Amino acid sequence: MASLTALLLSIVLGPWLITRLRDFQIGQHIREEGPKSHQKKAGTPTMGGLLIGVSILVPTLLWANLREPAVWVALSGLVSFGAIGFWDDYLKVRRKRNLGLKARQKLALEVVAAMLVGVMLLAMNARGVYSTSINVPFFKNLKPDLLIHSLLSNPWTFPLAFAFFFGFLMLVLVGASNAVNLTDGLDGLAIGLMIIAAGAMTALSYVSGHADFARYLELSRTPGAYELTIFCGAMTGASLGFLWYNAHPAQIFMGDVGSLALGGGLGVVAVLLKQEILLLFIGGVYVIESISVILQVASFKLRGKRIFKMAPLHHHFEALGWQEAKIITRFWITGLVMALFALTTLKLR
Fold first, then answer.
1. What is the pLDDT of residue 108?
2. What average pLDDT does the structure give for the chain?
3. Which of 59, 157, 201, 204 falls 20 to 30 Å from 337 in CA-CA distance?
4. Is the dihedral of CA 316, 320, 321, 322 positive or negative?
5. What is the pTM of this model?
6. Angle, helix 228-246 to helix 189-209, in steps of 10 degrees
7. What pLDDT was estimated at residue 143?
8. CA distance 9 to 26
9. Is 143 helix (H, G, I), strand (E, B) or coil?
10. 8 Å CB contact between 269 and 181
């Protein structure tokens, strides 16, 4: 029901939002150094992530058990990262250039958002409804604890334990949000991959919250994780509905308000389910896109040479002459294969 509610909301509200964005002249500004073929997309309504956010929030509040802290942590991650993206998009529209928040400003705000989520998780841990241990693919009995309790017993190493916990959390959440943001460069690419990733997380939420399944698969279980099935189902439905208007040729772009919110929400769910490592496979294409950017920047700064014709990776294939629709479809297929592989690791241990 959450998925259907989110799907219907996004499809019904989509035309209204597109019209309003056009009326307010909130259109996409294309960066000059990007592919020349993208210049014709200038002016396409952006900030469509507002539609995604509403289509996730309403079904979650409607169908989820709001007494479960995990639901509020997931919503907090979605909203806080989405707010950063909204500010970034607003500055781009106001300045009429593809320049919003500075990289350091955006990173600092994302770190603050990740720390907010971390504080909420520690509060859950103190109440005994959240475990700081994580699941490791292929190893049933290996569940390392992020909050190294041996360090907590010594006042000199006490800060080190929390530094490690928050550092790992920031890596997951900031990395996930920016990975989705970097992938959002072709019509329907990022949102199509999100349907796959959110769908996989819905399945993970169900088995992690089901006492018998969690015990059988020997998963670190978070009480109330079953309610995250509602949140992930809403993410899947909202993404599917947004794809209706974002499919090539796109009528609307999600903007940073959508990509950062979705990435942040996906990362928070992975943390709550103790599947931070498995997120690397569930969002495999997002990870590959991010790595392509890191390698490109590092290679150019160290050697003065580029590895790819253009980064992120989807632009490299555009430069090779691949049609946009072919790149999108093949990236979706790759994402689906990697997500299915991630789910099989639950049993192959």
1. 96
2. 88
3. 59
4. negative
5. 0.92
6. 160
7. 80
8. 21
9. coil
10. no
